[in-house]
Each structure stands twice: as C-alpha cells, then as structure tokens.
Fold each of these.
Amino acid sequence: MKKVLELKNGETVIIRHLTKSDAEGVWHNFNEVIEEGIYLPVFLPVKTQLEKDTWYLNVKKENEICIVAENPLLKAPNNIIGQCEISNTNWDAATHVGALGIIVRKKYRDLSVGRTLIDFAIRESKKLNNKEKIILSSFSTNDRALHLFKKIGFKVLGIRKKQFFMESNYIDEVMMELWIDDYLNEKNPKTE
Ligand SMILES: CC(C)(COP(=O)(O)OP(=O)(O)OC[C@H]1O[C@@H](n2cnc3c(N)ncnc32)[C@H](O)[C@@H]1OP(=O)(O)O)[C@@H](O)C(=O)NCCC(=O)NCCS
C-alpha cells in the first residue's frame, strides 16, 4: 500500500513502507534531529553501519511498522524526508499496544507530512499487527509535536516532571495515548 501526497510547496511525496535501501535516509534524518538537540533525549548520532543494519533487521524480524515519506526526485539518502515507526513494546502482555516515533526533515515540516505519516502508520498497525492502542511521549517544550498529536486525537495521560536533563536544563516528558478505533470511527471515518 502507498499514498501520494501533494505538498503545498508543489513537491510530491510518496508515503509507503520502509525498504532496505531507505535505512540510510532514515538514520540521516534521525542524526539531524539529534544535532538539533531539542527534540529527542539522545546525545550521540548513530554512525555505524552495524547499528543501522541491526535496526533494519529488527524492524523486519519483529514485523514492526515503519512508514517513510519519499521525495522521488531526490537522490538517496536525501529522498527519505520523514519517517514514522510504530514499534512493539517490550511486554509479552502488551502486544496490542504500539509505540510511535516520528521525524520529518526540517525543510519539510509544517506541510502535513507528519500528519499523513502518522495516519498511514496507525491504519497499517491495526491492519497488519492488530494494534489497538498507540502510545508516545514528547518533551513538554515540543510545541509543534504536541499540537499535532492532540489534533490527531492523542490524549495526555500525565507528565513525568524533570524526566530529562539536557544542556543544563530539566525537561518534562508528556505521556500520551490514542485508541485506534476511536481515531478511525470518531475522527477520521472518511480519510482512508
Ligand atoms: C513533530 C513533527 C514530526 C511534525 O511533523 P510535521 O510534518 O511538521 O507535521 P504537520 O505539518 O503534519 O503538522 C504540524 C502542525 O504543527 C503546527 N505548528 C507548527 N509550529 C508550531 C508551534 N510552534 N506551536 C504549535 N503548533 C505548531 C502546524 O501549524 C501544524 O498544525 P496545523 O496542521 O493545525 O496547521 C516534525 O516537526 C519533526 O520532525 N520535529 C522534530 C522531531 C520531533 O519532534 N519528533 C517528535 C518527537 S516526540
């Protein structure tokens, strides 16, 4: 399954499942966000081929959902302009729950790529992995992400105060969840 998204800047983006050749682009985006230093609680970029390959093999082995946004006019790894992963939790008794992570490259933010990636990933995680609920967390300072998650329908469960310490500042972590059937039935019945 794939989807074509026309951006308001005139570019066309393909929303689709991850393939092996996308892994470099996915990690390129991750490392750029780590360099930005304000969105994720990670200090060091992922550089080694072993780490990148291990991640890809694990996504496939665990049948996890990783959806990418591709600009087909760009050369790899720059062609992957965003990604949304819905991973399994570590618990045997929580296979109905998926954990969402998302990154969109700086130049492509605020063009609805994030919203489209999340919508696609949620639907696929129900269809392919029988997920019922999606969980995530965000820095309380990440206004764009919080706006987007709330707009989609994620509810705030609570806040872990001072959960992270970065650049001499404490940051609160906002915990959120979304029931997929609520999302599909109540909010977005016609968008599939
Ligand atoms: C968060 C992120 C994935 C969103 O992707 P995106 O493609 O920019 O998202 P969209 O364009 O679909 O939606 C962004 C929304 O935030 C709004 N927004 C932008 N800046 C904002 C701000 N400072 N405060 C509140 N809302 C803001 C936009 O107007 C848009 O809302 P609208 O559709 O109601 O107008 C992307 O910005 C990103 O990769 N950020 C860095 C990594 C990150 O934070 N990942 C999530 C970690 S939890």
Amino acid sequence: METRPDVVVVGAGIAGLTAAALLAQEGLAVQLLEAHQQSGGCAGTFRRGPYTFDVGATQVAGLEPGGSHQRLLAHFGLPLPQATPLDPVCVVDLADGLPPVRIWRDPAHWASEREQQFPGSSRFWQLCASLHEANWSFASRDPVLPPRSLWDLGKLLPALRPANLASGLLTAASVADLLTLTGCGGDPRLRRFLDLQLRLYSQEPAERTAALYGATVLAMGQAPLGLWHLQGSMQVLSQQLEQALAAAGGQLRRRHRVSALQRSAEGWRLQIERQEFSLNATDVVLAIPVQSLPDLLGKQLPAGYRNRLKGLNDPSGALVFYGAVKRELLPTNCPGHIQLDWADPGSLFVSVSHEGDGRAPAGQATVIASVFTPAKPWFELEAPSYDQAKADAMAALQRGLESLLGITSKQWLHAELATPRGFERWTGRPFGFVGGLGQNPSSFGPFGLASRTPLPGLWLCGDSIHPGEGTAAVGLSALMACRQLLAERGQTLSITSPNT
Ligand SMILES: Cc1cc2nc3c(=O)[nH]c(=O)nc-3n(C[C@H](O)[C@H](O)[C@H](O)COP(=O)(O)OP(=O)(O)OC[C@H]3O[C@@H](n4cnc5c(N)ncnc54)[C@H](O)[C@@H]3O)c2cc1C
C-alpha cells in the first residue's frame, strides 16, 4: 500500500507532535509515524497496577503567558493543561549537614535564600539575571539558530538587540567563568549546587555549561516564568497535541517504526520496519535524536555532516527508579521535587506525586528518582552481569531515597528500575541517550546542529536541536523547523508572542 502525504514527521514525542500539528494546521497533508504504541516519548507515561508513572519528564516549563507551551496551545485553540506552579521549585540537599537549598518561585524570596545559603554571591546572580533577560527577549522573537541560509539569517539578525551583542562577548564562556568573573569562584558549596542544578538541564557541570544557556536555566523556576506539575500525568501534554493534529486533519500512525529513508526524484521514501508499507513525501521532519540519522540514511549523509555527527560527544543515559509508598511515611510537607547529592549511583533527582494528582490512589504517593549514568556500558553487559549491575544500582538508589525520605526498604509498595536499555526500548533513542547534545560552549545555540540539514526536504527538531532539551524547548525547535519548511513552500508561519 502506498500513500503520498506532503510531509511525514517521524517520532511522536513532544517535538514531533508539535511539528505535525503545526504543519497540518497550515493545510499540509501530514502523517506522523511513531514506533511505540503511544505518543509522548520521554514525556510519556506508563501504568503499573494502580499507579501512573511519568517515564522521564516530570515537570514542565513554558506554561506562563508567552511561554512556548502557552503560545503553541493558544495557536491550536486549546486550553492550558491543569497544572500547579512548583514552589519550592526544587529543594537541593547537598548532603553536607547544612539546611537544604530551597529554590523559591518568588524572585525576592529566592534572592534572600541565596544570600543566606551562599553569602556574597549576589554579583554572580545579578550577572546571570542580566544575561537571562537578554536571552529571553531574544528567544521570544523566534530567531533561527544556527543559521544555514539567507532566510535563516533574515530571521536571526532582526532578533538581535544591543544587549545580545554585549552578552555575545560571553558566548565562549562557561558558568564557572561567570563565577570567576564575579569573584564567586571560591565558594565550593555554591559550585556544588550549580553543578547539580545545571546537570539537570544541560547534562554538564558548571565548568562545561555555556554561560548564556546556564544563565537562563538558572532563572527558569522564578515568576513570571516557572516550572509546573501537571494534573493527571505528563501524558496530557501529548494528548492535547494529538487533539490539535487530529483537528487539523493530520494522521498519527502508532507502531510504525521508520527503518530507512531514501532520497528520490520526488522527495523521500520512508520504509517502515516489518511492514509491507512505505510512504513517499516531499518533506520529512525527523523528530528523533540525531544519533539515529546514520542508520536511517546511511551513505546519503554527506561526509562532512556524517563526521560532524560522529564527532558529537555521547549524551548521558539515565537510571530511573519508579516507586510508591504510603504518603503518611513521607516527611511532612514533602516537596514535589528534591535533588540529593548522593555518591552511588550519583546525585538523585526525585519527583513525588501530589495527593489527588492522578498518579496514585488516595493516601499513597509515587516516587520517581533519576540519576545520570554513562549509557553505552549498560549495553556491553551479558545477561547475568547486567541483572547484577541493575540490582546493585537499584539497591544503591533506594538507599539514597530511604535516607532522604526516612523510610525503610520494606515500606515500598512498588519498586522497579529502568536502565538505558529500557529507555532505548521505550523511546527508540540509540543507547537510551536522554536529553540533547549537552549544552557546553562548543555545542550550544550558535554552535549546535541546525534544524535545516544539508539534504533537501529533510528537517530536524527535538532535543538535539536548539534550544535543547525539555518539553518547552523541543516545542520551539519544532516551530523553527516548520517555519523553515513552510518558507521553502512560500508559506509563512508565525504564532503570537508577547513581542509581536
Ligand atoms: C529521565 C528524564 C527526565 C527528564 N525530566 C524532564 C523534566 O522534568 N522536564 C522537561 O521538560 N524535560 C525533561 N526531560 C527531557 C524531555 O523529556 C525531553 O527533552 C523531551 O521530552 C524530548 O522530546 P522529543 O520529542 O525531542 O523526543 P522523544 O521524547 O525522545 O520522542 C521521540 C519519539 O520518536 C519515536 N521514535 C524514535 N525512533 C523512531 C523511528 N525510527 N520511527 C518512528 N518513531 C521513532 C520514539 O518512540 C519517541 O516517541 C527528561 C528526560 C528524561 C529521559
């Protein structure tokens, strides 16, 4: 059987769903192919008995007025999902015997907490705030980054303002350089705090996180921006985007894993794994990690581009623990998000469900804890060693959680662990790589991979592309790729922003 849509989007994570819905709404015939039986990818959910677990992402940015999810959902004519802003945004326990750092939503409250926790650091935070302000207004003008054509440049240059040219002087700097510049490089506690927080968003510690990127992620939790906890589960975001796609006449085909892409005179031919089914389309949007490209495209990738992909550092993998406990066992007023500096298997990012948020029965709570791990070694282990390594990691991770939450190993109502192997199966990401490429000074924004590829009619979006990982960011990467694709067809796509 053969059909011919205008565009095929590959991968129904948040990036692919957004791209497919945007293009369908502009009148294109769109098919969205998803390998899994459900959409959402790293922002999906799964059920275990009475529990609903968020697979990867547990908190959402971009729901504030002008935020990326807000703008996109408004463009689709959909309401914002029901959600509560996180306050504290996160509680960071540096395991040093001192009170944990509470990152508050209110900027003044957070400034006073910072001064108490990291005395004398205000110059560092002020510099971050100025950089963030310049970044944020630049981002809200929807620049195309990195530019690969005159059209792209025409969308980048008008977004720049004098403040961006000034902060551009710090393009090659890291967050650690900002500490040194402001005379705050000598506070090891502040440095440790930054290392933990930055790794969550950039996969890199302070010395390897680009200053311009770090300045913004460090400000994401405070009003008027913020991070939110979704009512129901993370899946509601994908469900809304599926709704937008269907309303615009686009088609989502689940259980359709694309196994090869072939360039032809008419465009692209997509082969679907284990099916007598292929599709031809003029344009293809790949909303999957860029590490998948060599397998899908083989020799069609120009040598320079293939080498560029080969030269990328491997992103991290993740170990993710999914557990449940009686709520009465948790500390009083247990925060929804906690970071714990823990040696083995590494620092934990913990998300605890709220009572009545749809994830656990009344009086119980789900507890999800993730920790970064090098991904590839997990694929080198044979069965008995793999099982042992997984059991050891799970026990060590549970020890961290039990010490943090004051519970015992017998009190878990549910406990299971996903390794990078499980993530590869669930999300189709090579080696279960999580997040994007890592936001260090040589690979972020202007130095990253572009959504416009050297192959005509082939576009990229998702967390390998600017502005990086997180559901709010991948929505923006999808918008950027769709604007480029539509411009090639003589169409203009713009969505409302506070600055337009
Ligand atoms: C443990 C963890 C915690 C995280 N926490 C947060 C958080 O709290 N907040 C936040 O905003 N972000 C978080 N993130 C990051 C965020 O989830 C991702 O950056 C984002 O969801 C990626 O979206 P995507 O659409 O680019 O890719 P993905 O979500 O990976 O989606 C890609 C989709 O493509 C499909 N696919 C892959 N290959 C093929 C193929 N060949 N053919 C067809 N389909 C294919 C996959 O099945 C998948 O559905 C977290 C990620 C992880 C792993």
